[in-house]
Amino acid sequence: MTPSAPRQLTLPLPLPVSSDRADYLEDASNAEALAWIDQPDRWPGGRLAVFGPAGVGKSHLARAMGWRLIEGPTLRGLPDPAAGGTVLDDADAVAEERALLHLINLCAERGERLLLIGREAPARWPVALPDLASRLRATTAIGIGRPGDALLGALLAKHFADRQLRVAPEVQAWLVARLSREASALAEAAARLDRAALVARAPVTRALARAALAGWDGFGEGADDDASETLHSPPSPQVPALL
């Protein structure tokens, strides 16, 4: 008996998270925020807050500034002066209110730009210090909404291109209609499909995607799915890589 070939192991390789401002795709949901981000000299008092739900790219924006980045829960004491400015991500999760108040005051005294990132507008943050509440209410706040279909489609295509994974446009459109409308869900879906395609040694079809994503919270079946489609369906022809 001829020994069978050893099964090839697939190693999931994490892709680096881009911090390039050019990689941040624009649509109606974030256009106003991007316009403010790109003109820090316009920020009233040198301070701006950007807020929105999880998965809309706030942390990507924070890193794309190229400024000193502080995670809100880790804020303690007074930081040293920073070139350009300071970004406080998860600013609404700061554990020490007085540290946030000192940071706001310090940046104002030094003439440094300060960008606050959170899920709610600063005026809604539940703070106890009156001085801090006053400064937060005075901070210009710009919201980012849920992305539209065009942005979701472009973002999913970019995740596939980054992984050099060929997925037909009609399959991508099918996925966008069923995936959670969050950037993080699209990235996770691309990673799962990449692994599934490597294991199956087959292109990403609807059938393969349905099997790979079944049971995951970020994926929901559509009412128009063809129930007769199975993993034994003929593979789709290859399409050019999305570059």
From TrEMBL:
Pfam families: Hda_lid. The lineage of its organism: Bacteria, Pseudomonadati, Pseudomonadota, Alphaproteobacteria, Acetobacterales. Residues 44-166 form the AAA+ ATPase domain. This is AAA+ ATPase domain-containing protein. Transmembrane segments: none annotated. It comes from Neoroseomonas terrae. PANTHER family: CHROMOSOMAL REPLICATION INITIATOR PROTEIN DNAA (PTHR30050), DNAA REGULATORY INACTIVATOR HDA (PTHR30050:SF5). Residues 234-243 have a biased composition (Pro residues). InterPro entries: AAA+_ATPase, Hda_lid, P-loop_NTPase.
